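Following up on my earlier thread - several people asked me to post the actual chain instead of describing it. Fair enough. Here it is, all 251 residues.
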Amino acid sequence: MKIRYIIPGPISKTELGKKEVERRLGKLKKWASSETEVDITDVDYGPASIESMFEEYLSIQGTAEEVQKAEKEGYDAVIIGCFGDPGLDGLREITDMLVVGPAGVSMSMAVTLGHKFSVVTVTDTILAALEKLAWETGVYQKLASVRAIDIPVIELNKDHSRGVERMIEIGKKAVKEDRADVLVLGCMSMGFLDVAQKMMDELGVPVINPSQASLKLAEALISCNLSHSPLAYQIPPKIRSGKTVKELLLK
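Reply from S.P.:
Thanks for posting it. Predicted structure:
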């Protein structure tokens, strides 16, 4: 099976550079099953990181272009590499290929492991958006809280140890004060720190890594010959006629 992980921002053009993209690819290959071919790409344009609904919207067009490209290249699935699942519904409308959103995957997984879950994310600017996403996923009644470590995405990638310390600190508060019995890491950069096991050992509750969970669910769905419903996500007539995302836009 072939899976492509799409980062919906030009992270390779930031100070983190292509080295960060390659580091993430290394993690994906480590997590993938032996029969899985996984690769990674970032988009050519858009916000460097996504920490607001507005930045999510800005990222969708470039991501959509990469989704269509992956389908033409014969991929079985793509993973949208942002925990906000930006444009997920629309992206599923433009392809017959499986499109996986990490937040929906991780939150759905969380409710199978406990009674209440909390999301530990990066900044206060996306707290409301993630609460809304829990409602859209259908698990809002089991959401204990969404808490932020107050470290922006780029800074988190530059200082991993400080980020991990804050994730553990905020995770403890979610467990003790909000009575969460499962934690979800609410940022893909957190996932690629690969510290869920360390947090589980310290906090004593399941901790879901969205980067790993989305890959493993994509593998499972492909193995089961399952994808999103064509009745729920109907291909727009213009796309079905053969138009690309770019060709839909009048200039």
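The radius of gyration is 17 Å. That should answer part of your original question.
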